[in-house]
Specification:
- The chain is mainly β.
- It is built from 2 helices and 22 strands.
- Strands 14, 15, 17, 18, 19 and 21 form a 6-stranded antiparallel β-sheet that branches.
- The longest helix is centred in the N-terminal third of the chain and has 25 residues, at 2-26.
Length: 370
């Protein structure tokens, strides 16, 4: 029995050693290499929010219509393996779903010319240190679609697997371009996702498919304004009428002191036709359609008449009361050398025997043009 007990004790000690060995090897850490990955954040070009396109501007760059943006692409976990040279490089792609290109776009560059949705306007986007193009090739974008390669991140030779991180920066400049000889209409551009970005490892043991960076180069909202006509005299215009004798206005319907006056408009694009302004407001006599006098003279009003150069008959009276005023103020005047002159007359009009005194009246005018 003692021998059995001794034998049993020996087996117990051996089992304990075996269990200790298993516990020791069970806690050994397992080394794993980092997986390659690239990241980036979207960027928006810094063009002005409102851009005025000058009248009669020749095709080409529009003044003060440029913007820039930069995107940093960070790649880590390189090389994917140390057994293939291709596994040391992560390539950045710009393309696949490029925004709509303008008809003037040259696929070979320099740059990519995007459509804006406004007739006669395009956006040229160029890049450094690698110039942007919209060619179609295997390396230019996923599924062999239009785009280009902004750069790549390569781990140095001899780098341990998964230990290298690096970055590449792409700088972009955008220029709004006028593509036609005609005047550009007003409107709104954007927002537009111009260029989406991807990355992949080509060849080697990985030879990955393109993976989205969920980042893009964007264009914000831009309001395009067309040149506007401006009143040369500003917002106010004073028409001095001459002094006349009361005898000249002794009876109802008699007129005197007919004086021409003009409203000069400048800064208009050639080719526009300017509608004569609609007179409105002021104290209007419902019976005559004339402006009532706010001065000291009695039985006298101010009548307005159409002048020469418009489609309305020169010398025809303008009835300022109700809708008739619009009907008699609908003549148009052509724009010549970015300017137009709207011609009128003003005169005293007697509603009875006029008395001596002052005559004063005012009316508003609204210029419309197209």
């Amino acid at each position: 029995m003692m021998l059995c007990d001794s034998h049993a004790s020996s087996r117990t000690r051996l089992l304990g050693v075996a269990l200790l060995a298993l516990a020791f090897f069970g806690w050994m850490p397992k080394a794993e290499a980092a997986s390659p990955n690239c990241t980036a954040s979207s960027a928006t070009l810094s063009l002005p929010g409102t851009i005025n396109v000058p009248a009669n501007l020749a095709p080409g760059p529009i003044p003060n219509a440029t913007g820039t943006a930069s995107i940093t692409f960070n790649c880590s976990g390189l090389p994917a393996t140390t057994s293939h040279a291709a596994d040391y490089t992560a390539t950045i792609q710009a393309g696949q779903n490029l925004a709509t290109r303008d008809s003037t776009n040259n696929p070979n560059g320099p740059g990519i010319t995007f459509a804006t949705g406004i007739t006669g306007l395009a956006l040229l986007v160029t890049a450094t240190p690698v110039q942007a193009t919209s060619n179609t090739c295997l390396a230019c974008g996923p599924t062999s679609t239009a785009g280009y390669v902004p750069g790549s991140v390569t781990a140095p030779a001899g780098t341990s697997q998964g230990s290298y991180s690096g970055a590449v920066v792409a700088n972009y400049t955008a220029q709004l371009i006028k593509t036609t000889s005609g005047n550009v209409p007003p409107g709104t551009i954007g927002p537009i996702t111009l260029i989406p970005f991807w990355w992949y490892i080509a060849g080697g043991s990985v030879d990955s498919t393109s993976q989205s960076l969920h980042a893009s180069l964007n264009l914000g909202t831009i309001t395009i304004t067309a040149p506007t006509c401006a009143v040369a005299a500003g917002t106010g215009l004073t028409v001095p009428l001459p002094g006349v004798e009361t005898a000249d206005l002794a009876a109802n319907g008699s007129v005197a002191g007919t004086t021409p006056f003009s409203i000069a408009i400048t800064g208009c694009p050639d080719g526009l036709s300017v509608a004569t302004n609609t007179f409105s407001g002021g104290n209007v006599d419902r019976n005559t359609g004339n402006l009532q006098n706010s001065g000291s003279a009695r039985n006298v009003e101010v009548r307005l008449l159409n002048g020469a150069g418009g489609s309305a008959n020169a010398g025809s009276a303008i009835n300022l009361h109700g809708t008739t005023a619009k009907a008699q103020n609908s003549g148009t005047f052509p724009v010549v050398n970015d300017a137009v002159t709207l011609n009128y007359f003003a005169q005293y009009y007697a509603t009875g025997k006029a008395t001596a005194g002052t005559v004063s009246a005012s009316v508003q005018y609204t210029i419309t043009y197209q």
